[in-house]
Amino acid sequence: MSDVEVKINSMYPPGASGGIRAYASATVDGCLGIRGIKVVEGGRDGLFVSMPSRKTENGYKEICFPVTKEFREQLHKAVLDSYQQAVAMNQAPVQPQEAAPEQSQPPMQMGGM
Q1: What is the mean pLDDT of residues 4-18?
Q2: Going by fewer Cβ within 10 Å, which terminus of the chain is more open, N or C?
Q3: Distant-in-sequence, close-in-space partners of 10: CB < 8 Å, separation ≥ 6
Q4: Distance between CA atoms of 40 and 23, rounded to whole angstroms?
Q5: What is the domain extent for residue 25?
Q6: What is the band of 106 on the pLDDT scale with cuts at 50, 70, 90?
Q7: Which CATH number fits the domain that encloses residue 86?
Q8: Residue 112 counted as domain residue
Q9: What is the residue-wise DSSP string for 17-80?
Q10: How many structural domains is the chain composed of?
C-alpha cells in the first residue's frame, strides 16, 4: 500500500463554484505529485473525487496514468478524509488564546562619555 499525503489547497461553500467544494494536491510515496484534484458535490453518493483534467476540442478529458483499482480507491479515500478533516477544523469553535504575561525588562540606561 502506498503512502499518500493530501493537502487541501482551497475550499468553497456549498453551491459555489459549480459544485466544486475543494481543490487538493496529493503526493504519493514522496515522489509523485498529483495537482488539480477536485472534491465535487453531486451525484447520488454526495461528494466524489475528480482527477485533474485538461480541455480538448471535444470538452474535458481526464489526465490518465495507469493505476490499479485499489490505488484509485486509496487515493480517493485519502482526499475525502482530508477534506472532511479540513471541514471539521473550519467548523470547530475557536479557542481564545491566553495572552502570555509580559516580561518586565529593565529600563535601558544611557551611558555617559
Answers
A1: 86
A2: C
A3: 22, 23
A4: 9
A5: 4-91
A6: low
A7: 3.30.1120.40
A8: no
A9: GGGEEEEEEEEETTTEEEEEEEEEE-STTSEEEE--EEEETTEEEE------HHHHHHHHHHHH
A10: 1
